[in-house]
Design brief:
By secondary structure, the chain is mainly β. Helix content is 9%, strand content 49%. It has helices at 103-108, 158-163, 201-213, 290-299, and strands at 9-12, 37-43, 56-63, 68-75, 79-82, 97-100, 110-118, 123-131, 140-147, 164-165, 169-177, 182-189, 193-196, 216-219, 222-232, 235-242, 247-252, 260-262, 266-270, 272-278, 281-288, 304-311, 317-331, 340-348, 353-358, 362-371. The model has no long low-confidence stretch (mean pLDDT 88).
């Protein structure tokens, strides 16, 4: 029995990736990293002979340098399987957008290289990551699906032809060849392809409008502020600031479910200053203090996330998103007399654990329009 079947993603054993581990950063001479390939034909030597004859596999990949598909015949002992999510072939129709099924893994490949910064009295070395996109499949238009033509291999010897396993269906695909500045076509096994889903134009419009108007969106159990839309090899992505995680996130647009647009992510905010007249002069009067908002938030039955701007003991100012909070008294570790001060004890979503914050060191505090 052949170890691999048509449509399997395979790599040479010299490749750093493992069957289910595709996130390994490639260092050293990255140009020697071989492509991720797909099996398109099998020569099955099933005879019981000594020594045994190894099965052979025709494999295909895309060369970005030449802007064309390449093939190679490789022995079973040369190869290792790479696990890639399957595709529902019922969705393949003429006019569909497709790509070689290796696209997501090739897009995710990264390389690292050492970067040195030299000055008159010191040097600093850092590792920098960048994409390794040598074998990324183009996005293609599916022109036609048909059964494999066995007569095409008529020049093959009858013995080899008997042992060959061909794909059941092949797809004629068209893409723009940037090197030749022309459109090219290729026949590929249907099992070697993945479909590129059409984007939700209504959702894209909502996100684009939120970016332009600087509004926020409530979805995915968080509040997000859309920052940028991008298209990476046919797949749309949104970069946004996540107010719960308190960091920027990049996600496929298709993962944004049931978005609700909100103009302001905050329900309440402190401190609040209002302009007042005093002695004929305009002055700012503090009307809502940090502790007042905090006490009101603690009294609510349905508690919302807190978003704080905080100055730590080293004078650094950071922002944190908190849940499961309470105010407790504790010794002031910055005071030699260890006086009792109020601490806001809460789960910090930036650090992923409980943290203590001196209430007097909270510069600003807001309640998100989101309960936990």
């Amino acid at each position: 029995m052949p170890k691999f079947t048509i449509g399997d993603a395979v790599i040479l054993k010299t490749h750093p990736f493992q069957e289910t581990i595709h996130s390994i950063v490639i260092s050293g001479e990255y140009l020697m990293t071989p492509p991720i390939m797909v099996v398109t034909e099998v020569i099955n030597h099933d005879e019981d002979v000594d020594p045994p004859i190894l099965n052979k596999y025709k494999c295909v990949w895309f060369s970005s340098k030449k802007n064309q598909f390449q093939e190679s015949n490789l022995l079973e002992t040369d190869l290792r399987r790479l696990e890639i999510e399957g595709t529902d072939y019922d969705n393949f129709l003429p006019g569909s957008l497709v790509a070689l099924k290796t696209l997501p893994v090739e897009l995710g490949k990264e390389r690292s290289f050492m970067h040195s910064e030299l000055s008159s009295n010191s040097s600093k070395k850092t590792n920098t990551l960048s994409g390794l996109l040598s074998f990324v499949s183009p996005i293609m238009t599916l022109c036609e699906i048909k059964e494999h033509d066995l007569e095409k291999g008529s020049k093959v010897s009858p013995d080899i032809k008997r042992k060959k396993i061909y794909p059941d269906y092949v797809a004629k695909c068209k893409w723009f060849n940037a090197v030749g500045e022309k459109f090219s076509e290729e026949l590929l096994p249907l099992a070697s392809l993945m479909i590129i889903m059409e984007p939700d134009n209504e959702l894209l419009s909502i996100l684009d409008k939120a970016i332009k108007e600087e509004t926020c969106i409530n979805c995915l159990n968080t509040i997000l502020k859309p920052l940028q839309l991008s298209n990476r090899s046919g797949i749309y992505y949104i970069t946004y600031f996540d107010y719960v995680l308190n960091r920027n996130v990049n996600k496929e647009v298709s993962e944004i479910i049931d978005p609700i647009v909100i103009s302001n992510p905050f329900k309440t905010h402190a401190p609040i200053f209002k302009k007042r007249k005093k002695g004929g002069k305009s002055i700012l009067k503090l009307t809502t203090e940090v502790e007042t908002l905090l006490n009101n938030a603690l009294k609510r039955k349905s508690k919302n996330y807190l978003f704080i701007k905080y100055q730590d003991r080293f004078g650094q100012i950071t922002t944190r998103t908190l849940s499961n909070y309470e105010v407790i008294e504790g010794e002031d570790d910055l005071s030699p007399t260890k006086d009792l001060v109020k601490y806001l004890r809460a789960f910090c979503h930036l650090r992923g654990s409980d943290r203590n914050f001196r209430v007097k060191s909270i510069i600003e505090i807001s309640e998100l329009r989101l309960a936990f």
